[in-house]
Every structure is written in C-alpha cells, then in structure tokens.
Amino acid sequence: MLSISEAVQIKIVTRHKVSEAEIHEAFANRDGGILEDTRAENKTMPPTLWFIAETYKGRLLKIVFIQDGTNTIIKTAYEPNREEIRIYDKYKD
C-alpha cells in the first residue's frame, strides 16, 4: 500500500509539481533496482530507499520512500539532477 502524508503531499505538489498518479506510474515503470540512501544525515530505520523511473509521459522522477512491512511510505518525489541520475545508472543493477 502506498502512503503519502498530507505534509509530503503538499510539498511534492507545490514545490516539485509531482502528482500521486505520477508516483504510481514511476513505481509501475521502474526497470532498475532500488538503492538505499546510506548518507549519515538520511539514515532511517527502516532504511530510506530510492529509485529513478519515468512516468507514462516520459517525465523522469526520483522517488524516495521507506518500506515498512506492506506499507510504502513516500518521503519525497522530484525530477532528479544529473548526479542522481549518474549514481542510479551506475548502481541500479
């Protein structure tokens, strides 16, 4: 089950112009692996995970989330920068 808090929903819509439908599309279109954010300032329990995938319209999104049992809790979603794309392309397989 995909879960997005009201605060995150407001942030991704107003700041990043990403809809919940686009997040679902990115999950459906993901063709690479899921990476763990191991940076000290972003460490969480359960771990913060992320991937980059396209929406049905070809918009590239970075989806950041936590997997808590059967719940997928969205932390943020936005268009990735060049460095994030490079990292994902290097380690996604």
Automatic annotation (TrEMBL):
It comes from the Bacteria. This is ADP-ribosyl-(Dinitrogen reductase) hydrolase. It comes from Uruburuella testudinis.
